[in-house]
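Design request, tokens follow.
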């Protein structure tokens, strides 16, 4: 059946009115997968600028883009995750990447993909101190944290560390690691991914027990982009079952990471 000129015009108007990157067919038609992230030299495991170590999240998305037969395009948006989510909603990209964690507030604004990395807070000490496996064992330790970080302060509160033992004067998470090395504090509570990275550079660090409830690192998508999210979730599910996942975990987080990640993903409390 022939399509009339009026029908073609209506179709063109609908297509032009759709948000950029509105869904999987639109992404395929455009010919790029646009990933909103922030390349940080201080965060080598997620969205790092080193070409040989682009970041676990970006390696996953490169694989997904390759499966979809489109190149991956980085859309650099500096600032916090809220800024990147706003850029996604405004249509500047198709996916938000870069240590985006599941939160109740975030779920009201965007759709989250399947988990590609479990998120836990862990207790970290340094030799000659032993690994601390429970919050109760933190009694007597000087616990460092960043007083302006809601997440880190929340983890310290969940561990029920007495206020007299908390050193909250660190300005950045990187300062906590230096405080632990210098002996200014004798323990810190950090995210598992950053603890594993730090341990690769400093084998004297002891990664101990979990604090708080598990959550996930995910990718963010617009809520209406259901086909794109379904395809990405299927890819992540297959990726997590394969040997590439193990290889990349060891590449970015070291030989000790797989055992800890299995426990973290299972929500086990040591």
């Amino acid at each position: 059946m022939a399509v009339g000129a009026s029908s073609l015009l209506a179709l063109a108007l609908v297509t032009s009115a759709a948000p950029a990157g509105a869904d999987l067919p639109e992404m395929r038609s455009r010919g790029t997968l646009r990933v909103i992230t922030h390349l940080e030299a201080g965060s080598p495991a997620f969205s790092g600028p080193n070409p040989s170590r682009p970041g676990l999240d970006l390696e996953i998305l490169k694989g997904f883009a390759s499966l979809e037969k489109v190149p991956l395009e980085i859309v650099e948006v500096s600032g916090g995750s809220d800024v990147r989510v706003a850029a996604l909603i405004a249509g500047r990209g198709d996916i938000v990447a870069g240590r985006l964690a599941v939160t109740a507030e975030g779920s009201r604004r965007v759709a989250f993909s399947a988990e590609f990395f479990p998120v836990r807070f862990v207790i970290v000490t340094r030799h000659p101190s032993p690994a601390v496996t429970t919050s109760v064992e933190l009694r007597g330790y000087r616990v460092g944290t960043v007083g302006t970080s809601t997440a880190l302060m929340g983890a310290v509160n969940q561990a029920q560390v007495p206020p007299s033992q908390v050193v909250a004067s660190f300005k950045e998470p990187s300062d906590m690691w230096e405080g632990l090395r210098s002996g200014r504090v004798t323990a810190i509570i950090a995210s598992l991914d950053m603890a594993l990275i730090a341990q690769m550079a400093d084998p004297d660090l002891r990664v101990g027990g979990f604090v708080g409830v598990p959550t996930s690192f995910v990718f963010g998508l617009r809520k209406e982009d259901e086909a794109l999210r379904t395809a990405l979730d299927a890819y992540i599910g297959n990726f997590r079952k394969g040997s590439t996942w193990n290889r990349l975990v060891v590449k970015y987080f070291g030989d000790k990471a797989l055992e800890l990640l299995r426990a973290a993903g299972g929500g086990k409390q040591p």
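Comment from the thread starter after seeing the answer: thanks! The chain is about 40% helix and 20% strand.
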